[in-house]
Amino acid sequence: MPVLQTNLRLSLKTILFTTDFSSASEAALPYVQALVRWYGSKVIVVHSVEPEPPPTLSMEPSPLDMNLSWQHAQNKMNEFLRSNPLPGIVHETVLEQGELWDVLSDLIRRHDIDLLVLGTHGRQGLKKLVLGSAAEQIFRLAPCPVLTVGPKAVRPSIQFENWKRILFATDFSAGSLKALPYALSMAEENNAQLMLLHTIPLVPVQQQDDVQEGARRRLEKLMPMDAADWCKPEYVVRFEFPADGILKVAQERQADLIVMGVRAAASPRTSAHLPWATAYEVVCHAHCPVLTVRA
């Protein structure tokens, strides 16, 4: 297993913040502001309006000057800007008509986005299967990392300063390890405690000691040799299903950020109907933001 280096600081030149002007989106703003302070990023604020067919039932979208949803979105964007949500931060706003993922993917490509930030209501169960999840579609399709603030994430008071405890969850796959450099960089940037977690379901009790020791050694090998200069890592092995184990450890250790890899989806349709996938379960129930990096 290759030894990682920590001397490569993340470059987050441009952050894309998507909003639907709800309280869920508002909950993500303090993290956008903090990331800009740390990395000197520019922010693009985007809201997409789904095309509406005109009353004649033509399949062509209504002209924008006749589209009530577009006019409402313009008013909401103006209200958002008047609230001065990003004081002193270089930013621009984008209001587009189109399906959300189509709008975001175009912006990610054209502006070379380094990080996408969003808040989510976290649909679950049958409602999710019927309606899909915009948040899961985004973090499974986005080529850049995605910071998702779920419905149970505790809102920071006034101004968010830093993440003190960061939890990195891995199954040792190549996909999950793509997220490790982000966990290391965020931990170094915040001088945070870094916890590395591996969960293993359905291991017989008589084998657990040996399995636990082997997994712990593999976790230790993930840390760069110079990490002791800035971090005292903690290695955690749990015999639980992944989502349950990640959420329990995050709660017990009072994690401020969860970092994990996610599997890519083949298409928007596929990503919107993956039932109860691990990453989405974590996002829905975690009391902190979740940074996902697509495999």
3D architecture notes:
With 295 residues, this protein is of the alpha/beta class. It has a single domain (14-294), classed as Rossmann fold (3-Layer(aba) Sandwich), CATH 3.40.50. The protein is built from 12 helices and 10 strands. It has helices spanning 23-26, 29-39, 68-82, 100-111, 125-131, 134-141, 174-177, 180-190, 208-222, 242-252, 268-271, 278-285, and strands spanning 14-18, 42-49, 91-97, 115-119, 146-149, 165-169, 193-199, 234-238, 257-262, 290-294. The chain has a 10-stranded mixed sheet, sandwiched between helices. Strand 7, helix 9 and strand 8 form a beta-alpha-beta unit. The longest helix has 15 residues, at 68-82.
